Backbone:
């Protein structure tokens, strides 16, 4: 086998590939949320990592206090965190309409500091574990690797939510409104559509996507207040690589970057933390608009 | 005329201040004031939001520290070397970042700075989590012992005044005017025949170099170069200082830096110590929502309205 020739046991290679695919799934869902928000608000949501973290913590609280477990949290956490996001849009971000878009980034940066700082104060910087739901405990031996059920579920659920988002945008009336709002909000408003409400919904939906990723990640990592802040910078790089133009672009780029990161961890471990940034630099040199971007 | 008197009063004040206030605190303040002033060059006058300036500040800190501690370079040369290295890094990151505009510029600089941070985390010469400790302060001009805090203070003050003067001169030069024109309307500047990308890159490199000067000086003052200075939190803090003091004003960033550093020092010693990031975040939110001109910007608007 090829893998034996390279001196790497297949378990290691496929294990890292699987891990890369999982990370890629998170990149995809998070960058998709950023793209949805960017489409209507024209801002980069720096607080996206904080909302992802809130999703993970919400999973813990919901399990503890509502007793509806992981599967309940999977529905309730994105709704609650998404509603919180909508409130923030309504009371804070809306005030920045007509101001330079950079202020939106700065405002959400401030929000991220407040949210994460509060959680660090309350729960400490170290993490809280969350168990894998019992229905998805264990795994299957595929011969060349051991596949834990939960990890397979993370990839499937992430891709499913991305496809659902695509269907929402391309096949429903509200999706058509959202796309129209991205193209020309003033004209859409003139047609009698409530664009400010649409904007609030879009922000809430983007935030809910981040929280959904947070629920998915809770059982495979330590849930900690700062889990989102480093991740979001990598996701920004993914967004620069793929461009925020299309949903499919975000998904494909996210998954591909995860796999590339996983492979780097096998063949060149020292570079695994920086490989996505290097890819970003190369893409900027060769194709400044991004792989799926149309304009710079 | 008025501003000249103002600057002379400020310099006189800075000369006597170390007899009243703890000099090390003042030096920290001056380093950050310079850092924010350098940053303002690219954000306030160039209109480009760099979210990666910690890479230049922290990076120069390591280079200066290494040059002084391991190579035994004289203090001035070590600081200069750190600043020039930061400028070189600015060329690399700047060339990539100016290929995109607006928010993409911010994301690219942030990502590149994070990459630099990861390189520092895993390099041997930075000392990893412990930082580069025991950097010698050395002698200024070969004979003034900088181990003395007061001598060190006047050394830092000299660097600050010279650098501040160069930055102010740059802003008022034809180059600075073109830069502001690009900020206000890039297409118009292009149509007037200016090579927009070259101006942006030069501004970015200048800004990076002076940020490096600030970082290198800070390393000498504290005899330590650490990871905190290149973390993205630092990039955010310098944005906050500049915004709070007043984007695109000459003295605003220094005022903003003074407020933030004083606040941090004050909070850190009190019961609110652990809330520092939350307080900074709240100031950020308030600034962006209600106070976009910053302290100096509001003051200028007030004076213009009243007189």
Residues:
């Amino acid at each position: 086998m090829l893998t034996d020739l390279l001196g790497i046991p297949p378990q290691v290679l496929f294990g890292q590939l699987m891990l890369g695919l999982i990370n890629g799934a998170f990149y995809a869902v998070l960058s998709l949320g950023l793209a949805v928000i960017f489409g209507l608000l024209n801002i980069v949501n720096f607080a996206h990592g904080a909302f992802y973290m809130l999703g993970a913590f919400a999973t813990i609280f919901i399990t503890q206090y509502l007793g509806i477990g992981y599967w309940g949290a999977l529905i309730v956490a994105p709704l609650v965190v998404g509603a919180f996001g909508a409130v923030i849009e309504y009371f804070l971000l809306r005030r920045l309409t007509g101001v330079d878009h950079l202020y939106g980034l700065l405002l959400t940066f401030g929000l991220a500091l407040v949210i994460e700082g509060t959680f660090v104060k309350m729960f400490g910087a170290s993490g809280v574990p969350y168990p894998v739901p019992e229905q998805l405990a264990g795994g299957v031996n595929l011969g060349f690797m051991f596949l834990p059920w939960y990890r397979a579920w993370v990839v499937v659920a992430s891709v499913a939510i991305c496809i659902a988002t695509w269907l929402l945008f391309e096949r429903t009336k509200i999706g058509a409104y959202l796309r129209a709002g991205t193209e020309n909000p003033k004209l859409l408003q003139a047609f009698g559509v409530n664009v400010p409400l649409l904007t609030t919904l879009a922000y809430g939906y983007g935030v809910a996507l981040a929280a959904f990723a947070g629920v998915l990640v809770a059982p495979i990592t330590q849930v900690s207040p700062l889990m989102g802040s480093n991740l979001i910078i990598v996701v920004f790089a993914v967004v620069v690589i793929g461009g925020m133009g299309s949903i499919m672009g975000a998904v494909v780029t996210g998954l591909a970057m995860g796999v590339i990161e996983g492979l780097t961890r096998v063949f060149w471990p020292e570079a695994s933390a920086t490989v996505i940034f290097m890819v970003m630099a190369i893409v900027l040199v060769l194709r400044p608009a991004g792989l799926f971007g149309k304009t710079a | 005329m008025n501003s000249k008197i103002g600057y002379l009063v400020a310099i006189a004040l800075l000369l006597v201040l170390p007899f009243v206030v703890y000099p090390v605190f003042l030096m920290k303040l001056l380093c950050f004031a310079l850092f924010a002033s350098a940053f303002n060059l690219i954000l306030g006058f160039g209109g480009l939001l760099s979210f990666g300036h910690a890479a230049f500040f922290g990076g120069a800190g390591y280079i200066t520290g290494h040059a002084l501690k391991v190579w035994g370079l004289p203090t001035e040369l070590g600081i200069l070397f750190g600043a020039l290295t930061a400028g070189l890094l600015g060329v690399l990151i700047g060339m990539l970042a100016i290929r995109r505009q607006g928010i993409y510029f911010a994301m690219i600089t942030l990502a590149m700075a994070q990459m630099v941070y990861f390189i520092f985390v895993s390099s041997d010469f930075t000392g990893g989590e412990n930082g580069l400790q025991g950097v010698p302060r050395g002698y200024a001009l070969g004979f003034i012992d900088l181990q003395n805090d007061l001598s060190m203070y006047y050394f830092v003050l000299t660097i600050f005044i010279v650098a501040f003067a160069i930055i102010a001169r740059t802003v008022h030069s034809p180059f600075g005017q073109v830069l502001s024109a690009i900020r206000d309307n890039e297409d118009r500047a292009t149509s007037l025949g200016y090579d927009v990308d070259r101006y942006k890159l030069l501004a970015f490199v200048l800004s990076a170099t002076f940020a490096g000067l600030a970082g290198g000086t800070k390393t000498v003052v504290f005899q330590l170069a650490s990871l905190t200075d290149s973390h993205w939190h630092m990039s955010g803090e310098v944005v906050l200082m500049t915004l709070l003091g007043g984007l695109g004003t000459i003295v605003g960033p220094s005022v903003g830096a003074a407020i933030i550093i004083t606040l941090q020092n004050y909070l850190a010693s009190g019961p609110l110590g652990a809330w520092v990031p939350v307080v900074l975040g709240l100031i950020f939110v308030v600034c962006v929502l209600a106070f976009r001109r910053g302290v100096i910007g509001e003051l200028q608007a007030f004076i213009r309205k009243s007189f």
Summary: Residues 164 and 248 of chain B are 14 Å apart (CA to CA). Chain B is about 75% helix and 5% strand. The mean pLDDT of chain B is 92. Chain B touches chain A at residues 49, 51, 96, 99-104, 106-108, 110-112, 114-115, 118-119, 121-122, 232, 236, 239, 243, 274-278, 280-285, 287-289, 292 (CB under 8 Å).
